[in-house]
Amino acid sequence: MNNFSISTKKELKKFIENKIFKKILILAGKRSFHLSGLKSFFSEVKNNEMKFYFKEKPFPDYEELMLIINEINRFSPDLIIAAGGGSVLDYAKIANVINQERNLSEKIILNTYKLKNSNRKLIAIPTTAGSGAEVTANAVIYINNVKYSVEGQLIKPDDFFLIPDFIKGASNKIKSSAGFDAISQSIESLVSLKSNDDSVKYATRSLEISLKYFLNFLSNPNLENTSAMAFAANLSGRAISISKTTAPHAVSYPFTSLFNISHGHAVSLTLDKFMMFNYKNLKKNKSNFDLKKRYEILFNLSKSNNIEEFKFFLNNLQKKAQLENNFTNLGININNSIDRILNDVNEQRLSNNPIQIDKQIIKKILIES
């Protein structure tokens, strides 16, 4: 079996039962907490005062974030454990280092918030192989259904545990969405204006692993392919922590907030379209690297000879993962919804795209797809 950097439940139990942790707050999703086996695991943890908070919202919402911050202030834990998918991890990452203060939502919107050092520890236990949020220095929060980012080195968890047993129990719908997110992040990282040699190494290695194991992970999950996807997601998180994401992620957020499409699925709706757009406009490239060579990395990894074959590869991967890409089949009238979608596009992520894109271009791409 390939040697992926994973942890064991025994190691996690030993860490949690350390007597330096007197009070522990566990933040989780109620359904995933049961399906992952975390409920059974924590029932065997001894010698700590533990309190559980189960999130309600499907994606990180500002109002619920305030409830979590209140819970942290009331309980005063010395260890926070974020056990769940990207939303759980993002909630914990923000709540751990931001003060509940007057006009906080406005400060997040205007990017004038301040992060604070926390005396407590934050550890992340992903229950999906997807976002790599356990290693990223940013977190997502939605305010009035619009996505914003909270960023800074203090956001990063102090430690993380990649434990395949907690990931295998997720539904195929969650696995396919999360896994495609990891793949998308690495693809976008390779072409992002902020990419560098380190992010390219992380993204390339992530794709080598995820493209090999993703579909088997969905059809026949086992220790090897689950470990592989957890590690690939972690690497993709390391990549985008440097490079940030680009147009497909920028446009994905309104599909989640407006139509309740899971994050990775929402990214998959436009990944092929923007990758094609970027390639067709190589001469307008704004990067300080050779964008065509970055595409050659992607062609090589996907065994594609050209951009058309690469687009087919992405579409085929999406189809096999059962991620619907037809707007009508998803209940979306794109012509009637386009203005709302464009209004909620994340322009910060859009600015990382190697080819300049405005909302009129996005409109054209979405309407003609």
What does this structure look like?
The protein is α/β, with parallel strands linked by helices and 369 residues long. The protein has two domains: 9-165, Rossmann fold (3-Layer(aba) Sandwich), CATH 3.40.50.1970; 171-368, Up-down Bundle (Dehydroquinate synthase-like, alpha domain), CATH 1.20.1090. Helices cover 53% and strands 11% of the residues. It has helices spanning 9-16, 30-35, 38-42, 62-75, 86-97, 104-110, 172-191, 197-219, 223-243, 247-259, 263-268, 271-280, 291-302, 307-320, 334-343, 347-350, 359-368; strands at 23-29, 49-55, 79-84, 121-126, 138-143, 146-151, 159-160. Strands 2-1-3-4-7 form a five-stranded parallel β-sheet. Helix 7 runs parallel beside helix 9. The longest helix has 23 residues, at 197-219.
Strand content: 5-15%
Domains, number: 2
Helices, by number, come to 17
Question: What general form does the structure show?
Answer: globular
Radius of gyration equals: 20 Å
State the CATH topology of the largest domain. Answer: Dehydroquinate synthase-like, alpha domain
Please estimate the helix content.
Answer: 40-55%
Give the assembly state of these chains.
Answer: single chain
The CATH class of the largest domain is: Mainly Alpha
First CA to last CA: what distance? 41 Å
Unreliable segments (pLDDT under 50, ≥5 consecutive)? none
Number-wise, the strands total 7
Determine the CATH superfamily of the largest domain: Dehydroquinate synthase-like - alpha domain
Architecture of the largest domain in CATH?
Up-down Bundle
Instruction: Write down the secondary-structure element order.
Output: HEHHEHEHHEEEEHHHHHHHHHHH
Mean pLDDT: 94
Biggest pleated-sheet summary: 5 strands, parallel
Strand order of the largest sheet: 2-1-3-4-7
